[in-house]
Amino acid sequence: MLRLLRTPLVILFALMVTLPVAAQNRHGFNPAKFKADLERFITTEACLTPSEAARFFPLYSEMNQKQRVLFDKVRELKRVRPNDEEGCRKVIAEIDRLELEIKQLQTNYHSRFLTVISATKLYDVIQAEGRFHRQAMRNAARPRPRPRP
Asked: Average pLDDT in the 56-71 region?
């Protein structure tokens, strides 16, 4: 009896493990590809030279890493609604503080960016980044054709 159950259980377990992995490969987010696409798009749209791009993108990545930490804290605070008025006030104040910190971080890095690229190119970078993210969101929302088995 145990032998009869073992084979279907092994197959079921194998399917449970491999199906999510297969689904991630088809529809998953690839951070390295996203970053490469973003850098390529910004370089093209802002007409960055190879030397400008080589000096700009390490700073840009550094800023994004620091922002990500702050964005994650904001997202975590927004996940659970406090039960009382005072708790809500504290969460709102903390979110406001973090958002001001994000803006201050951007201001500091914009000053640093201006030491490696011109203000005109930095403006173009900021515009290109916005266009890239809007385009990425539209593409993510677009329904994908289902692969045939």
From this structure: 96
